Amino acid sequence: MDNMWERVGSQLLARVSGPMKFRLVLQPCMAAFFAIRAGLADAKAGRPPWFWELVSNPPQRMDMVKEAWKRIGKVFILAVVLDVIYQLIVLHFVYPGETLIVAFTLAIIPYVILRGPAVRVARMIEARRKQEQQTPPPLRKVS
Q: What is the tens place of the pLDDT at every residue in 7-58?
């Protein structure tokens, strides 16, 4: 059992310097794009930050997870496919558990981390914009 965890750890670390390492940057960026887009939509609709709502509103959990999966599912599937290709090229074998760990880390975690702050930032920007529109310009001194 200890040998298995050593293998998993070493193979996960090897992905950082191995072939196809571009995906370790590209996939979190794609997840961030979808998270920010969803966060802006949440802010526009007046919904609370996604993760907070997920934790505090049990009746809506399944609907929220389904909606999030529609937005991030393609990125997750792409992460799975690219990791399977990586494993076939480098290891000549597919380890499904490692594939799910990598896909979850590259797609789901950045999405969950960034969606809520995107809502908060969008609300702060909107509040500042409204405040600037309501504040009259300063009077100029005539000399």
A: 778 887 888 887 888 888 889 999 999 999 999 999 999 888 888 888 888 8
Secondary structure class of 73 (helix, strand, coil): helix
Q: What is the reported pTM? A: 0.79
Residue 96 tokens read as: 């499904």
Q: Which helix (H) or strand (E) holds 49?
A: none
Q: Which ranges in 46-108 belong to alpha helices (H)?
A: 50-56, 61-90, 96-103
CA distances from 137 to 52, 131, 134 (A): 38, 12, 9
Q: Where are the domains of the chain?
A: 35-131
Report pLDDT for 130. 87
Nearest to 125 by CA among 113, 133, 137, 136: 133
* CB contact at 8 A, 64 and 54: yes
